[in-house]
Task: structure prediction
Amino acid sequence: MPKYTLRNSLIAALAVSMLPALAACGGSSDDGKDGGSAAGSSTKTVNGATQLNVPEGTDAETKKLYIMENGIAACMKKQGFAYTPHVGSGATDSAAGSGDGQDYAAEKKERQKYGFGTYAATVYPDDTNAPGSNAGGKIEGKVVTPPDDDQKGMTPAQLTAYEVALNGPPAKTKAEEKDGGCYLVGHTKAYGPPLSAAAEKKAQNARNEENRTNGLALNGDAQLIQLAQKFASCLKAQGIPVSTTQPTGMADMVRLDLANQLPEDHRSLTKAEALPLLTKDIDVSLKDLECGKKFRAAYFPKEKAHPYWGDGQ
Result:
């Protein structure tokens, strides 16, 4: 596991999916249980540690991120260090779509300006909501790593001690790397004790089997098969290549196929070079959205009931 130095909802979400077998450092059972709040909202102080407040309506998985961050902050305070808990807001200032067309209205608004998002940041360099934009120090309108003064003015020795408190002692070899320190304390508060290596392997195998079963169910659904065929026929009539007609691949197919064809230097384009490409991208993305409207309306509710993350994961 990489050292826990960047803190936001996306990075934390990746971190929580990896549960190696580890031993926790000390921490009380009551600090940090309340969780926290989205970026920019209220905080409180508990036993000298900054704690975020859980916003109303926070979903269960996001709440765990707050619990983890607050647990880290409480643990670091006991070690004599300040730690400012952060959880990204998870939303931009715009009504941006998710990219897969699940929300038709929001996605149409997004694609009418940005297309699939490939060239948007180049054409709109000052637009913080453009996909891929880092204008104003933000990523797509979000503050990814809010500034804090947790380590300001520390000597090299103090920085080393801070790192050990946060992540545990450094491993002697790559094979011995594991989560530790206050990160592990916070993670355990949110997600429970880490599983043993054998138990984690068993759990992962079970998740993989569930994913495979869900994929078979979606791809064998008669309604989705029929709608996927109509979706594909519509795309072909618009001159858009179709690489699959499996329901599990159709929602993102056009976007991903185009992304796989991009030249390596596409990020170095000038605004003038990117503008006509964006115009074409918008056209294709809107055709994809319209052709797939009925398919997506049927697919995503069924995919929610049968979660599927793809092959080879």
